[in-house]
Design a protein that fits this description.
10 helices, elongated, nine-stranded mixed beta sheet
């Protein structure tokens, strides 16, 4: 374990990690059912992970089929033996064959049995058996690429095998980092065994998705129904149950990225985006009293498909604490600036949970009333730093938000925000309350529209009504 930790610190920890951007649950559901002691993903617990490790090799005298034959003759030639040793327990041939079973011996109180369930000249696939840390399948494959090069890939589709494995993988992250070290080292050794050289880093891409069981789906439906009905009833009494009055401003988002790669355009791009921002008081209390203050953003962001392809992103922030615990709690404030606005609820960026925020700078004091806010922005733009952090990590600045001038009236439908309908490109909502948010907003907005129609008809002139 000491050797593994040393290698992880020197090499694996620095491996760049990106999002795979696949429908991981759909990919897993396409895996055929297996007989016998196979532990398929439906039997696992927790979220689903699809992970892909890829290394490109140049200068190898081998073809893809020859490389896979060499690997099948001795899996331990590529495996980091301080972490995993392959021991064949079923099968007579010295090389890998369909139906063979192996036990992967690992440090700690567990071994990982697998079975070869698919075999071609350029690939083979293992399925996990009962007792494995994971429930799913993993495939090793190679292919010939242009100019005599090779590409070797390890791809897995799996969930944790039991709750202890899920705790080690998802909560502590020990099993996740051990797995990362194991397969990145494996890819590097395959490049050496091929007689060629590795071109660039091992590329690691991950997609995470929830695969809820019947119990979790029932809880989600129950909580969603309770929230939606409660807020829809409130919307009939007051058109906006929360944040009833506010001001809308033309906004500019100046993005410059962070020191790490997130796989999210908002956090990685260096660009300038135009949008709208609405500032409001949550309960609508009179300005002398502190209130939870809200900052809603909407912008259009170019996508990877080209300049013509754009997506609308929306983000809702509210005044929260700034610290590791306070960022998860709402906090009433008496001024628009200085103030800290946080997302409160987490998002999923690949296999990381993150929070977003905006920091109104201390250099300027703007009381939390609508009139002082309008005067302050009329004098000069209101500036906020855009920040991102993991749930309990340090905040890092990735851009600047500028509120430049008052936009048209806040009475129209265009200033209603629904981040479930217009999510931040590249970010997935994480957690139960994020799943509840979308249906709740939709129910409130439907109730508000129904509440407005009778009033418009009652005040319509008789002549127009007759037409």
């Amino acid at each position: 374990m000491g050797l593994a930790a040393w290698r992880w610190l020197r090499h694996s920890r620095r491996v760049p990690r990106r999002r795979l951007r696949t429908r991981a649950v759909s990919e897993i559901e396409r895996i055929p059912g297996r007989d016998g002691r196979v532990q398929d993903p439906q039997q696992g617990v927790g979220p689903t992970y699809q992970r892909r490790y890829t290394v490109r090799i140049s200068g190898s005298p081998l073809t893809a089929a020859q490389l896979m034959e060499l690997l099948g003759d001795d899996l331990n030639a590529a495996s980091p033996v301080e972490v995993a040793v392959f021991d064949k327990t079923s099968g007579n041939a010295p090389s890998l064959e369909l139906g063979d079973e192996y036990v992967v011996h690992m440090p700690g109180p567990w071994n990982c049995p697998v079975r070869v369930v698919d075999l071609t000249p350029e690939s083979f696939r293992f399925a996990t058996l009962h007792g494995h840390l994971e429930a799913g399948e993993i495939e090793f494959r190679a292919r010939n690429v242009r100019e005599g090069g090779l590409e070797f890939t390890i791809e897995s589709w799996a969930r944790s095998g039991d709750r202890m494995a899920g705790f080690l993988y998802e909560k502590l992250g020990i099993a996740k980092e051990m797995q990362l070290h194991m397969w990145t080292h494996f890819c590097t050794r395959v490049a050496e065994l091929s007689g060629g050289r590795k071109s660039g880093d091992v590329e690691v891409r991950t997609e995470r998705a929830e695969m809820p069981g019947p119990g979790r789906r029932l809880v989600t439906r129950t909580v969603t129904a309770a929230f939606a009905r409660t807020f829809a009833l409130a919307a009939r009494l007051r058109e906006r149950p929360l944040h009833p009055r506010g001001l809308v401003f033309d906004a500019t988002l100046v993005l410059h990225g962070t020191s790490r790669y997130w796989g999210v355009p908002l956090l990685d791009d260096r660009t300038e985006l135009r949008g709208r921002a609405r500032l409001s008081r949550a309960a609508g209390l009179p300005p002398p009293l502190p209130d939870v203050l809200g900052l809603a953003l909407r912008w259009r962001q170019p996508q990877a498909g080209g300049e013509e392809a754009e997506a609308t992103g929306e983000l809702l922030l509210a005044t929260t604490g700034h610290g590791r615990l306070g960022r998860h709690l709402l906090r009433p404030a008496s001024g628009w600036s200085p103030a800290f606005y946080g997302s409160l609820l987490a998002f999923r960026a690949g296999d990381r949970r993150i929070l977003l925020g905006a920091v109104a700078r201390r250099a300027r004091n703007v009381p939390a009333g609508l009139a002082p806010l309008a005067r302050a922005v009329e004098e000069r733009p209101l500036l906020l730093d855009l920040v991102v952090a993991t749930e309990f990590g340090p905040w890092e600045r990735f851009g600047e938000l500028r509120l430049v001038e008052l936009a048209p009236s806040d009475d129209g439908e265009t200033t209603r925000f629904n981040p479930a309908r217009n999510p931040v490109p590249g970010l997935l909502p994480a957690g139960l309350l994020q799943q509840v948010r979308g249906p709740t907003y939709a129910a409130v907005q439907r109730a508000a529209r129904r509440g407005r129609r009778p009033r418009r008809q009652r005040h319509r002139p008789l002549g127009k009504a007759a037409r």
